[in-house]
Amino acid sequence: MAGATLSVWAGGMESLEAFVKNVKSGRAEFTQTVTAPTREGEPARAKVSTGTFAFQRPGQFKFDYQKPFAQTIVADGKNLWLYDVDLNQVTQRAQAQALGSTPAALIAAAPDLRALQADFTLESAPERDGLQWVKATPKTKDGQLQGIQVGFQGDALAALEIQDSFGQRSVLKFSKVEVNPALPAGTFVFKAPAGADVLKP
Fold first, then answer.
1. pLDDT digit string (tens) for 96-144?
2. What is the pLDDT of residues 168-196, one digit of tens each?
3. Are 77 and 95 in contact (CB under 8 A)?
4. Cβ–Cβ contacts within 10 Å for residue 186, how many?
5. Which strands make up the sheet holding 156-164, listed edge to edge?
6. Which residue pairs from 5-14 have beta carbons closer than 8 angstroms and sit at least 24 positions apart in sequence?
7. Which among 61, 72, 65 has a CA at the least distance from the CA of 102?
8. Distance between CA atoms of 87 and 63, rounded to whole angstroms?
9. Does the pTM of the predicted model rise above 0.70?
């Protein structure tokens, strides 16, 4: 029986290693559910948003939130851009400072597993919902992330669960995942729209 348990526990790390090694680019649709910490006697409040996601190693990715609010997050390899359509506001940060311990690093930024292990403590977690899981704990304690779990179906990315230090939980579920597609040249190029405020905190 012990042997069976071991093979289940090895699944997540094997999937992550194969994913980082073999999947150089990807495209998917996602649904994100954010649950705020509950106060006593109050029901949990969940906000659901949907959009598309693309990435290319090392270090380029794009989250395009479409509903209920349009928002774009782009990492072009040098800068991390966040564009809020409603506010017509762009926030620009140096990617190197903003990326190390973010969930996107687990999916898109790392060239290999060793690079990930510089920023995260990685371990396989028990299988659930038909997925193999890896638990990633950021090594820097000053960030807003408490822990991340990445779910795989075989070698395919299926889910991302993020717990932040404020007790908020975000769950991203990926569908229509394309592995190693040829992405258009301008996918990760971001130009601030005319008239937008550009903030550089």
1. 776 655 677 677 877 788 888 888 899 999 999 999 999 999 887 766 7
2. 899 999 999 999 999 998 999 999 999 99
3. yes
4. 8
5. 120-128, 131-138, 145-153, 156-164, 169-179, 25-35, 46-56, 60-67, 71-76, 79-84, 89-94, 197-199
6. 8/126, 8/127, 9/124, 9/126, 10/124, 11/124, 11/127, 11/132, 11/152, 12/124, 12/125, 12/127, 12/132, 12/133, 12/134, 12/135, 12/150, 12/152, 13/122, 13/123, 13/124, 13/134, 14/132
7. 61
8. 18
9. yes
- On the 0-12 / 13-18 / 19+ scale of CB atoms within 10 A, 61 is buried
